[in-house]
Fold this protein.
Amino acid sequence: MDKDRGIVFNIQKFSVNDGPGIRTVVFLKGCPLRCRWCANPESQAVRAEILWDAKKCIGCHHCIDVCPCGAVTAVKDRIVIDHKKCTGCGICVRECPHKALKSEGEIKTVNEVMDVVMQDLPFYEESGGGITLSGGEMLAQPEFAVSLLKAAKENGLHTCCETTGFAKQEVFAEVITYLDTILFDVKHWNTESHNEGTGVNNELILANLKYAVEQGKDILPRIPVIPGFNDSLKDAEMIARTIYETGARKAQLLPFHQFGENKYEQLGREYSYKNVAAYHREDLEEYRQKFNDNGIEAFF
Ligand code: SF4
Ligand code: SF4
Ligand code: SF4
């Protein structure tokens, strides 16, 4: 992919939870992290991926016959896609008689994305909204992200992103030049624990958060509160202190949910949080209070 084309897996209109006002959220494929609780596992690879729905499949094996790459096999009673062989051509999706296969991820140009985004200009103008880049992680396609944000700015739009902040500082600095608001994930205060839960350390992330605050950007750190990972009161206190040190003074708490479970099944992957109960706001009141006690205004 390059500055003119990227892989997009969803464009969601009329979002009201991803930055100020009414927004169109563009979900870019690819993420350098591997969070054990990830609710969008189909977003992680920077390529199209085929999902198989067991409930719709009639076991005709037509997909095996039509795949030009030999990427589809039947193992016991399920269809398995070898993602190393699959080129994402989409033939199996088109040929499946019961629509049991779905492709996540499509190559789109900047103009194609912006044509969709600009359809809702009157709603942005009325509500103070605009475009939000999400993922996956938009920093996994930095040139495409910059092109989209530049195009949005040329059209006078407010720009926002949801990010892990995990990228080389020069890459991060270039992308945020074109951002008005940054929703910035902070997952753990301790780098070993961060690595254990997400597959990467947190030093670069925290350095980028501090950098963004120093640039005077409108930053909202967001903490996914994950059972057994960062949900103790000590974690709350330490995350709050860590955020405070970067210069930010507010944070949003995102209680754990299991929305992604079905997608793991469709990708043929194990879901580590299968039987873990979701959190609700009322479960996390003390947790939230710890942030306030440590100088961070926290809300849900
Ligand atoms: S073509 Fe569709 S219905 Fe037939 S086996 Fe493949 S996924 Fe199942
Ligand atoms: S998308 Fe193309 S290459 Fe991939 S499994 Fe389907 S038919 Fe095979
Ligand atoms: S950062 Fe987000 S998209 Fe990436 S693995 Fe973690 S939860 Fe999934």
User: Anything to note?
Assistant: The first strand starts at residue 5 and ends at 15. DSSP finds eleven helices and 13 strands in the chain. The first helix runs from residue 62 to 66.
